[in-house]
Design brief:
Elements lengths: L5 E10 L12 H29 L6 H6 L3 E5 L4 E7 L3 H9 L3 E2 L2 E11 L2 H21 L4 H4 L5 H14 L3
Antiparallel strand pairs: 1-3, 1-5, 2-3, 4-5
Length: 170
């Protein structure tokens, strides 16, 4: 049996917005579509042929599965981090496409590749750590930090996101 070797990207999408109160929500399918469009526009159909099948983990014969099963394994709309799986041979092409993304579904973003790993376990650990760092930045920006910690709404989120990240399977 052949083992498929993957690379796992932990990416933070920093939204570029003039109004911080108007943060449009993104989801897995929108990120997948934007990544696909970035690969096609920057590397052509040949690039998508190489990366597309690795993003889904399916054979090229199963087009229906190709479109329904996307490689964005996790996305958090609160912290805008996501975990993307790509075949090891095509990870540099996918990394370039991620870096060249400028918008997702009309939302201007700056992608920041936080971590690249060969195993999902190390990506999970990096995602949990990065989630805590982002939440600590949110807490630092609070207008009234003393009163804010008494009614902190991020503790349940951190517990829930940690459980969701730890459950991810290859």
């Amino acid at each position: 049996m052949v083992r498929f070797k993957n690379r796992w990207f932990l990416v933070e999408f920093i939204t570029v917005s003039t109004e911080s109160s108007q943060q449009p929500s993104l989801d897995n399918k929108q990120i997948y579509s934007a990544l696909r469009q970035s690969v096609v526009s920057n590397f052509g159909d040949t690039g998508w042929g190489a990366v597309g099948t690795s993003l889904t983990g399916m054979s090229s014969h199963s087009l229906k599965s190709l479109l329904s099963d996307c490689a964005v394994k996790y996305f958090s709309p609160t912290t805008n981090i996501c975990i993307i799986r790509v075949a090891r041979d095509e990870h540099k092409l996918a990394w370039g496409a991620i870096t060249l993304l400028t918008s997702v579904n009309g939302v201007r973003i700056i992608p920041h590749v936080v971590h690249v790993s060969g195993t999902i376990k190390h990506t999970q650990l990096a995602a949990i750590k990065h989630n805590r760092e982002v939440i600590s930045r949110f807490r630092a920006r609070a207008k009234n930090p003393a009163a804010y910690h008494a009614q902190d709404s991020y503790e349940p989120y951190l517990a829930q996101s940690t459980r969701e990240i730890e459950v991810l399977q290859e």
